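name: query_chain
kind: protein
chains: 1
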Amino acid sequence: MEPESRRSQRQRFPSSRLTGHEVHSDNLIIDEGELVHLAFVADIEPITWKEAIVDRKWKSAMIEELESLERNETWELVALPKGKRPIDVKWVFKIKLKSKGSIAKHKAKLVAKGFLQKHGIDYIEVYTSGQIGNH
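structure:
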């Protein structure tokens, strides 16, 4: 005997960002539901900065992120030491939604691709903003 699946009882509202699109309820999309939801999001969030820069909302989010980095003194521009490679960066874009599905904010984050670095070669110390160890 299969266990009965539980569905949320909260009231659902159609997303305003899907106006003009064909919309199906979740219970009609069975096997590929997750892929369909990801496809909706992938279609509205840019992948590259070149895609984002042409939309004023994403451009504004990028400027806000750069101003935040400068205001918080997160980094400083210095000359690259001889024989060292610069760390590449990547823009990550995300639409933050309100509980009813409308857009709350366009968020852009500039992240370092530090995973390409090698300990002892590219860096010696590791810093964290969280606590490490037993609490």
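note: The chain has three helices and two strands.
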